[in-house]
Amino acid sequence: MIRPRHVLSQPLGKIVTGVEQRYANIPVTGVTTDNRAVIPGDIFIAVPGAHVHGAKYGDAAMHAGAVAIITDREGADFISADVPVIVTAQVSEKIGQIAARVYDNPADKLTTYAITGTNGKTTTAYMIDHILRALGEKTGLIGTVAVHIAGHEVPAELTTPQPADLQAMLAALVEQGGTSLVMEVSSHAIAQGRTNAICFSVAGFTNLTQDHLDFHHSLEEYFAVKSQLFTAEHSHQGVAVASQTWGEQIVAAHPEYVEALVVGKEQPGAWIMHPGEHQAFNLTSPTGETISTYTDLPGDFNVMNAALAIAMVNKGGYRLDDIAHALKTHHGVSPTVPGRMETISYAPRVVVDFAHNEAALTQAITALRPQTAGRLIVITGSAGDRDTTKRPAMAKTVAQHADVLIITDDDPHSEDPADIRAQLISGIPPHATWKEIADRRVAILTAIAEAEPEDTILIAGRGHERFQDIGGTLFELDDREIAREGIANRRPPND
């Protein structure tokens, strides 16, 4: 957990209401919902879990140095600790606000950028971070791949951290002189209130396609949760890609502070992106200013991601002229994004991407097809304990657009991997060229060994991930490292 090194203590009575007078001046220097992370001076917030109430660990938190425990009525019955116990309803919804008070509202001292959408969040976040650093900002970056805060980089456990951890990260960034924060905000995080204590300076919307319906039940519910980020409670300004009706609906609901980003067509009050050749593009603001730049990342969708990133940085306070000047010496909008259309080799071309739904797979294949003289081979699976309805459509679209489809395992979690593969295979149309190789490592090595130099291999679904979850046990498995191994083991031509 990333925390600030020095925290000015706050009296408990200032942090939460309902504290007995004799406890009101107890100094508080931190907050956590994980009893294993408690350090002296912390408030321990005990929330109900899926299987166990956190309050059962109240005594352990006290012995680790917790100075108070906040929980709900149910949790209070588990606690015998000799520290103040503050009981409140809907405790989970209040964690962010409590943590923000403990750390003196760090988000208010930063320019904060939030990205939401089904696909493109990570790449757009990295692009914004790239632009801001080119402009001289000291940034923090939080997302699916990793957390970069105040000189620390740690692998991400969640796309959007839990609220107490998030506020601690922001405080650490402020302590180290940080000026801007860029973060991905997932629909799960919005629904669970993880960012409730932050009103973002600028919010951005990429797109919405079928995914996570195991959690949201319908596409309409999924959208309703995403759109909450663009209310006045959660953001001050916004930019929404309006190439779908979903983005158009966000703009229509909040025309006073959310601007549309469209491609090629004149639309009053909108950002207009004109794509050129070789990933170059012009972007015109609603006030008529224009920037010309490019991205090295492949695909039309990455041109749109780059345009969104520029528009958001502009809304964050930078003139387009200043952005253009900074990008001239920083290779356009071209950050290295781990596991996002990441090229491992060129003959054959091997690309690792996080695409794990029908729309993202289609975009990745469409981007790689013009660059492929030979066959386009796609290796994919589907994660377990997730939206099962998307699986047949994923395999169908790959089989229709690629030359060869290899069905393999992703992260089965608690599901039977064979059942997941069978659901994918059920969507493959007749006469498609495909094979099933359950072991992902074997699938990747086989595809690379059998490929011709002019072929392209897209390894989709896991991107940057370094471990595979099979039945709750983690096994080391990094698609990028396996691909490098496969390339190293290929025989030279004419050998």
UniProtKB/TrEMBL annotation:
The lineage of its organism: Bacteria, Bacillati, Actinomycetota, Actinomycetes, Actinomycetales. Pathway: Cell wall biogenesis; peptidoglycan biosynthesis. Keywords: ATP-binding, Cell cycle, Cell division, Cell shape, Cell wall biogenesis/degradation, Cytoplasm, Ligase, Magnesium, Nucleotide-binding, Peptidoglycan synthesis. Its main location: cytoplasm. HAMAP family: MurE (MF_00208). GO terms for molecular function: ATP binding; magnesium ion binding; tetrahydrofolylpolyglutamate synthase activity. Coiled coil: none annotated. It is an enzyme of class 6 (ligase). The keyword ATP-binding applies. One of its GO terms (cellular component) is cytoplasm. Its EC number is 6.3.2.-. Belongs to the MurCDEF family. MurE subfamily. It comes from Arcanobacterium buesumense. The modification N6-carboxylysine is found at K226. PROSITE patterns: FOLYLPOLYGLU_SYNT_1 (PS01011). Carboxylation is probably crucial for Mg(2+) binding and, consequently, for the gamma-phosphate positioning of ATP. Its cofactor is Mg(2+). InterPro entries: Folylpolyglutamate_synth_CS, Mur-like_cat_sf, Mur_ligase_C, Mur_ligase_C_dom_sf, Mur_ligase_cen, Mur_ligase_N, MurE/MurF_N, UDP-N-AcMur-Glu-dNH2Pim_ligase. Catalyzes the addition of an amino acid to the nucleotide precursor UDP-N-acetylmuramoyl-L-alanyl-D-glutamate (UMAG) in the biosynthesis of bacterial cell-wall peptidoglycan. UDP-N-acetyl-alpha-D-muramoyl-L-alanyl-D-glutamate binds at T159, T160, S186, Q192, R194. ATP binds at G117, T118, N119, G120, K121, T122, T123. It comes from the Bacteria. It is found in: Cytoplasm. One of its GO terms (biological process) is cell division. This is UDP-N-acetylmuramyl-tripeptide synthetase. Residues 339-463 form the Mur ligase C-terminal domain. Residues 115-312 form the Mur ligase central domain.
